[in-house]
Amino acid sequence: MNLNATLFAQFVVFFILALFTMKFVWPPLMNALDERAKKIADGLAAAERGKLEMAAAEKRVQSELASANDAVQKRIADAEKRAQAIIEDAKRVAAEEAARIVASARADAEQQVSQARDALRSQVATLAVQGAEQILKREIDPTAHATLLNQLKTEL
């Protein structure tokens, strides 16, 4: 066997194998690697976009929470103001009612005092007549002396 021929044959086989590999094996392998690199790059870009969107969403959530908190504080303040207004209105109505009740009670008391005075005058007039009757030892006619009794009532 000739060493040169063997070397030459191995060189030809190697060259054919290299051509076959470059023509049929290498392009699909490179395409697969390129696709994988593209998928990885797309995944990294999507992750970066997701981080940015997450940060933007976080900012929106914070602003929404702040505005909701402000709205709640405003509603609480409005409710407290309204409660104060209702309390003040109730106090005013209660004071008016109390004044009306006191005025009514005073008028009632004055009326009762007036009635009591009239009753006392009547009783004093009757007692005066009875006293005069006792003194004179005779009965006085109340109808005949009605003017005298009325005059006595007004003096008392």
Automatic annotation (TrEMBL):
Keyword Ion transport assigned: yes
Gene3D superfamilies: 6.10.250.1580
Chain coiled-coil ranges: 62-96
Function: F(1)F(0) ATP synthase produces ATP from ADP in the presence of a proton or sodium gradient. F-type ATPases consist of two structural domains, F(1) containing the extramembraneous catalytic core and F(0) containing the membrane proton channel, linked together by a central stalk and a peripheral stalk. During catalysis, ATP synthesis in the catalytic domain of F(1) is coupled via a rotary mechanism of the central stalk subunits to proton translocation. Component of the F(0) channel, it forms part of the peripheral stalk, linking F(1) to F(0). The b'-subunit is a diverged and duplicated form of b found in plants and photosynthetic bacteria.
Gene Ontology MF annotations: proton-transporting ATP synthase activity, rotational mechanism; proton-transporting ATPase activity, rotational mechanism
Keywords, alphabetical: ATP synthesis, Cell membrane, CF(0), Coiled coil, Hydrogen ion transport, Ion transport, Membrane, Transmembrane, Transmembrane helix, Transport
Database matches in PANTHER family: ATP SYNTHASE SUBUNIT B (PTHR33445:SF1), ATP SYNTHASE SUBUNIT B', CHLOROPLASTIC (PTHR33445)
InterPro entries reported for this sequence: ATP_synth_B-like_membr_sf (IPR028987), ATP_synth_b/b'su_bac/chlpt (IPR002146), ATP_synth_F0_bsu_bac (IPR005864), ATP_synthase_B_chain (IPR050059)
Membrane topology: Single-pass membrane protein
Entry GO terms, CC: endomembrane system; plasma membrane; proton-transporting ATP synthase complex
Record note on quaternary structure: F-type ATPases have 2 components, F(1) - the catalytic core - and F(0) - the membrane proton channel. F(1) has five subunits: alpha(3), beta(3), gamma(1), delta(1), epsilon(1). F(0) has three main subunits: a(1), b(2) and c(10-14). The alpha and beta chains form an alternating ring which encloses part of the gamma chain. F(1) is attached to F(0) by a central stalk formed by the gamma and epsilon chains, while a peripheral stalk is formed by the delta and b chains. F-type ATPases have 2 components, F(1) - the catalytic core - and F(0) - the membrane proton channel. F(1) has five subunits: alpha(3), beta(3), gamma(1), delta(1), epsilon(1). F(0) has four main subunits: a(1), b(2) and c(10-14). The alpha and beta chains form an alternating ring which encloses part of the gamma chain. F(1) is attached to F(0) by a central stalk formed by the gamma and epsilon chains, while a peripheral stalk is formed by the delta and b chains.
Membrane-spanning intervals of the chain: 6-26
Source organism of this protein record: Noviherbaspirillum pedocola
Family classification: Belongs to the ATPase B chain family.
Record flagged with keyword Zinc-finger: no
Protein name, UniProt field: ATP synthase subunit b
Subcellular location: Cell membrane; Endomembrane system
